[in-house]
Amino acid sequence: MITINAKNIHYRALNDSIDKAVRTSKNIKLTDVCGQRYIGRGLDENIKIKIYGTPGNDTAAYMDGAELEIFGSAQDALANTMNRGKIIVHGHCGDTAGYAMRGGEIYVEGSVGYRVGIHMKEYRDLKPVIVVGGAAGDFLGEYMAGGAIILLGLGLSKNERITGRFCATGMHGGAIYLYGGTDAFNLGKEAAEVKLTNSDKEFLKKHVKAYAKHFNKNLSAVKVNNFKKYAALNKNPYENMYCKN
Amino acid sequence: MLNFNMPRYEIIRNEKKCINCKVCAKQCANEVHSYDEADNIMRADEALCVNCHRCVLLCPTKALTVKKYPLEFKENANWTAEAMNEIYKQAETGGVLLTSMGNPKPFPIYWDKMLLNASQVTNPSIDPLREPMEIKTFIGRNPDKLEFDGKGKLITKMPPKLELNAPIMFSAMSYGSISKNAHESLARAAAELGIYYNTGEGGLNKEFYKYGKNTIVQVASGRFGIDKKYLNTGAAIEIKIGQGAKPGIGGHLPGAKVDEDVSATRMIPEGSDAISPAPHHDIYSIEDLRQLIYSLKEVTGYKKPVFVKIAAVHNAAAIASGIARAGADAIVIDGFRGGTGAAPARVRDNVGIPIELALAAIDQRLREEGIRNSVSLIIAGSIRNSADIVKAVALGADAVYIASAALIAMGCHMCHSCMGGKCNWGIATQKANLVKRLNPDIMYKRLVNLVSAWNHEIQEILGGMGINAIDSLRGNRFMLRGIGLNDKELEILGIKYAGEAI
Ligand code: SF4
Ligand code: SF4
Fold first, then answer.
1. A83 at the B interface (CB within 8 A)?
2. How many other C-beta atoms can be found within 10 angstroms of the C-beta atom of residue B445?
3. Which H or E run includes B34?
4. Where exactly are the structural domains of chain B?
5. Nearest CA to B422 among B47, B29, B45?
6. Which regions of B243-317 does DSSP assign to beta strands (E)?
7. Atom 6 (ligand 2): residue with closest C-alpha?
8. I need a labelling partner for A233 at 20 to 30 A (CA). Which of A143, A166, A244, B158 fits?
9. Quick check: A64 and B96 CB within 8 A?
10. How many other C-beta atoms are found inside a 10 Å radius of the C-beta of residue B184?
11. Is A67 in CB contact (< 8 Å) with chain B?
12. Nearest C-alpha of chain B: how many angstroms from A241?
């Protein structure tokens, strides 16, 4: 394990030293991280980084297999266009997490901001998954083209809603699972509730269990039957919008 | 419902020349021609014709021609046939009018209202055939100052640059909007010419990674086919914010065009719509743009220039200044005549401004702010010939992108029907039987021919001005004079009227 203290270091220097460090050790610890961007960008498999503090925007951008564990909250655009890898956030997470993410997993202990999972994709064996303990802001899963978003809605107060407005707007692939569901008026017109299948339930069980393990929680009260699943009505939503001129 | 639209074109078949060989029927993917066995005659369903000239050119006896349909409405300068036919179509379908290629409306073409200078008597012109002529162009950022050590060795780290043998590159066209064979032709031509082609936003086919050093890889809002390998394969990366043909709106490749290979290149499931949202949802400001520029630089080790492409819009000059300050190595401006595989007709024909005015305004603004030197300026949006390029350079462009011209070199006949996916020339299609009509071995050569010819012409014109390096023309507006322009236009273009001396 190599420890790098990030205090007062510019992101470029920090990311450079991470690149150097991974040549000798696959286990890195970053301390005093305070807003440095792009940590873990493009990093490959078998690299594990523990991040203490608050990593900046675009953490794990284009990441390709590495594992990040963040002891703190993540800022915006976590896992932007990530290909593979795993991110565990012991805290909350800002907007657009998982933008165009193609593969890998994100576990967020708390809640996430706006437009999370926007334009998430999937391709062959790559199927991205975002698991969020709390709630999400508006436009969750906008333009979603693949993968899965799971919201557990843990510890929400009575007036708190699990999603904001316009959830799944423009969705044309993938699935969103919301514990207890969301109000129909929050849902974009391109998506609808569909039945949970047995394989959905297996999938949910697996990820709820993983969440419980990552954050050391007892989730025996979370019953997979209480999830509601939302999927695209059509994978070609705008097909009939045009006439050829 | 009765279709109120009459055919747009009339197929005229010379019965004396026609030998019923059925070539036209085989060649037309729109299924216009058919053989009537009973009457032993070829017939045509004219309503389906898009006027692409494929059948006309391939007919062995040259028996065919296509003409504008002669039916006329009562003369009306306001309610033109076009205006009425569009209403008929929309009333029938309820659809947004979708079209292709660049704005065809009769807006002023400023290239044709600018004239170039030449040397007479006082400074001799240069013959590029026999005298040195430097046309090599570098694209990228320039450092604010150069520092040398005691021994005179440069110690300033130079930002990455592209080296071009001509101030011309092939503009972004995605695999999906155009065919694989078209892409291969562009890639091979770029490699042979020592220039670059641009993948567009549809990813890079695995077979073309070998042309990486002549490839500019694009990153658009849909983030299709983008991973670390893709970004590191290209010689440069272009962030596409906007496109001249459809400023402010996104793109949409219908699932029908996402076959196995396109899906593999875009890294999305087969048959799924490829939707590019109108904005990048991680960019709502110049600061956010900087974040994306630097995320791309971070993941490619600061070894690749990063371009930012925007459509020419009213505020382009201020935006370009922001792009330069956000850290882009080159700014790409796409004018309102730029082509597209598909765009809503109303947007294509009414949004954006001419590239000539945008270029002049941006170059001027960057100079006033003292940052023109730090960044390259590339323009696109209907460069039709080498004279357009020379004028663009004189107005301040470092290089131009061509796309429509490149497609025309490969056989495009500007039928404006790319959105249908049935391009008879094998360009804007993914249908195997049509794609194979475009032979990359021949087409890459035609592209090489075109760019080489233009390169010669550019040198010739430069020589005529007594200039022996294209750098000396860059932003040299004294070499331009306006004709048929008003004062405001001259002011924006920063040029004098023909007949005015320095
Ligand atoms: S669409 Fe093209 S090939 Fe078909 S009839 Fe018209 S001109 Fe001929
Ligand atoms: S690319 Fe093909 S479909 Fe598009 S305008 Fe040219 S000839 Fe027509």
1. yes
2. 16
3. strand B33-36
4. 9-95, 137-144+157-497
5. B29
6. 251-253, 274-276, 306-311
7. B412
8. A244
9. no
10. 21
11. no
12. 5
Q: Is the ipTM of this complex over 0.90?
A: yes
What Cα–Cα distance (Å) separates residue A66 from each residue in A22, A92, B19, B237, B292? 11, 20, 67, 24, 21
Distance (Å, whole) CA A69 – CA B237: 30
Which position has the token pair 């470029």? A12
* Token pair listed for A37: 């961007």
Residue B30, ligand 1, Cβ within 6 A? yes
Q: Which residues are CB-contacts of A220 (< 8 A; sequence separation ≥ 6)?
A: none
Phi, psi of A199, rounded to the nearest 5 degrees:
-70, -30
* pLDDT digits (tens), chain B, 502 positions: 889 999 999 999 999 999 999 999 999 999 999 999 999 999 999 999 999 999 999 999 999 999 999 999 999 999 999 999 999 999 999 999 999 999 999 999 999 999 999 999 888 899 998 999 999 999 999 988 899 999 999 999 999 999 999 999 999 999 989 999 999 999 999 999 999 999 999 999 999 999 999 999 999 999 999 999 999 999 999 999 999 999 999 887 888 888 899 999 999 988 888 888 888 988 999 999 999 999 999 999 999 999 999 999 999 999 999 999 999 999 999 999 999 999 999 999 999 999 999 999 999 999 999 999 999 999 999 999 999 999 999 999 999 999 999 999 999 999 999 999 999 999 999 999 999 999 999 999 999 999 999 999 999 999 999 999 999 999 999 999 999 999 999 999 999 999 998 7
Q: How far apart are CA B103 and CA B349, in angstroms?
A: 5
What does CATH list as the number for B9-95? 3.30.70.20
Domain range list for chain A: 1-84, 92-235
Buried b (16+ CB within 10 A) or exposed e, A228-242: bbbbbeebbbbeeeb
> Alpha-carbon distance A23 to A199, whole Å?
40
Question: What residues have CB less than 8 Å from B96, skipping those under 6 apart?
Answer: A241, A242, A243, B344, B346
Please write down the HEC assignment for all residues of B216-253: EEEECCCCCCCCHHHHHHCCEEEEECCCCCCCCCCEEE
What is the B428 CA–ligand 2 centroid distance (Å)? 6
Closest ligand 1 atom, CA of B51?
7
CATH architecture type of domain A92-235: 3 Solenoid (2.160)
Domain B137-144+157-497 belongs to what architecture?
Alpha-Beta Barrel (3.20)
**Which own/partner contact pairs does A130-134 have at CB distance under 8 Å and 24+ positions apart?**
A130/A97, A130/A98, A130/A101, A130/A105, A130/A106, A131/A105, A131/A106, A131/A107, A131/A207, A131/A208, A131/A210, A131/A211, A132/A93, A132/A108, A133/A108, A133/A109, A133/A211, A133/A215, A134/A92, A134/A108, A134/A110
